[in-house]
């Protein structure tokens, strides 16, 4: 990428970092620290995020290289895929993958031998997920089980092993709940990619079993994961339990709607709404653990969780109604830059606004 301007390189790195995925990694790492009793240790969280984010960048580069042909069908013109838009070349991504893998390993071993070995194992799993001859991404249900191991288990366990010499039963129960819940969420990603996956013989759960079975299995995972997380939560309040129940109910309503035949825009909005609910439940859990470790009373914790619940549900309703924020931004830009008869960037008065 030496011939590219600095601004272009930064845009490529931001695209490859997958901000939504980076946020998930951050939440799972923070939950790992909170589970270990270090919810307020921001410096340690930053130290854990260095190898985690470097691992994410390496994995994305390897996956984009291996899925380039499929992405050209599923995501034409998508700025989050620099290979598809020609914002970066294959050589650029190979260099970034190698450098980020080295950074991930080095930063993890600085935290200790256990985090280092964990990153090493995760890099091997990530390579097996994307690269042949293993190529787990093409193996349907296996891919849905393996990918959450990198998304959930890696940041969560790395944060735990950086602070504890041994895992406790409650730690593993929490991991099981987070992992199961995320399986239900990651299955929904395949709706976006179903056309290219079918064309290239990628046997995802959705391709093999259809949308109704996928939504039903996702609903089961959401339900089981939520119950297990609550069971593993120390000193849960009634408000936390009710908040989880409301979020779960909202997720199930979204999945029921998604199981029917809906248009592409509606499908995209529903999946984005499910993602918002999933992130919100993680934030509720993290807030409860942090407030509990800070010594907040039950009433104060309940008030804080209740306020966060209102925000989560409000965001979810907005996303389900209007679609992802990225779509709204793109639609607005298209409207603003549509040329008018006088040559300016204003739309014609009788031209319908771009659909959000």
TrEMBL record:
Membrane topology: Multi-pass membrane protein
TM spans (from-to): 12-31, 43-62, 93-111, 117-134, 141-160, 172-188, 213-232, 238-258
Any matching Pfam family: UbiA
Domain of life (superkingdom): Bacteria
Compartments in which it is found: Membrane
Basic and acidic residues composition-biased segments: 343-356
Chain residue ranges for the region called Disordered: 335-356
Matching InterPro entries: Prenyltransferase_related, UbiA_prenyltransferase, UbiA_sf
Principal location listed in the UniProt entry: membrane
Keyword terms of this UniProt record: Membrane, Transmembrane, Transmembrane helix
PANTHER family documented for this protein: CHLOROPHYLL SYNTHASE (PTHR42723), CHLOROPHYLL SYNTHASE, CHLOROPLASTIC (PTHR42723:SF1)
Record-given protein name: Prenyltransferase
């Amino acid at each position: 990428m030496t011939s590219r301007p600095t601004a272009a390189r930064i845009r490529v790195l931001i695209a490859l970092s997958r901000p939504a995925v980076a946020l998930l990694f951050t939440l799972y790492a923070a939950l790992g620290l909170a589970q270990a009793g270090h919810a307020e240790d921001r410096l340690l969280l930053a130290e854990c995020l260095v190898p985690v984010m470097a691992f994410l960048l390496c994995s994305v580069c390897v996956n984009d290289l291996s899925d380039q042909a499929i992405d050209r069908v599923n995501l034409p013109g998508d700025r989050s895929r620099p290979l598809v838009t020609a914002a970066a070349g294959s050589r650029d991504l190979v260099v970034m993958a190698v450098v980020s893998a080295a950074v991930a390993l080095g930063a993890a071993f600085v935290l200790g031998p256990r985090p280092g070995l964990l990153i090493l194992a995760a890099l091997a799993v990530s390579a097996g997920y994307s690269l042949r001859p293993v190529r787990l991404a093409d193996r349907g249900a296996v891919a849905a089980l393996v990918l959450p191991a990198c998304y959930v288990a890696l940041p969560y366990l790395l944060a735990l092993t950086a602070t504890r010499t041994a895992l406790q039963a409650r730690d593993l129960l929490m991991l099981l709940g987070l992992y199961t819940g995320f399986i239900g969420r990651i299955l929904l990603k395949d709706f976006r990619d179903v056309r290219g996956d079918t064309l290239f013989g990628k046997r995802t759960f959705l391709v093999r079993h259809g949308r109704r079975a996928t939504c039903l299995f996702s609903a089961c995972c959401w339900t089981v994961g939520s119950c297990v997380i609550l069971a593993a939560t120390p000193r849960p309040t009634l408000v936390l339990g009710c908040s989880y129940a409301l979020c779960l109910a909202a997720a199930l309503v979204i999945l029921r709607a998604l199981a029917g035949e809906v248009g592409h825009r509606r499908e995209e909005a529903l999946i984005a709404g499910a993602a918002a609910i999933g992130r919100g439940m993680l934030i509720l859990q993290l807030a409860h653990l942090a407030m509990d470790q800070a010594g907040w009373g039950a009433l104060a914790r309940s008030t804080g969780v209740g306020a966060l619940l209102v925000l989560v549900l409000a965001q979810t309703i907005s996303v389900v109604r209007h679609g992802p924020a990225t779509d709204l931004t793109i639609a607005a830009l298209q409207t603003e830059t549509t040329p008018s008869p006088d040559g300016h960037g204003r739309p014609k008065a009788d031209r319908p606004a771009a659909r959000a």
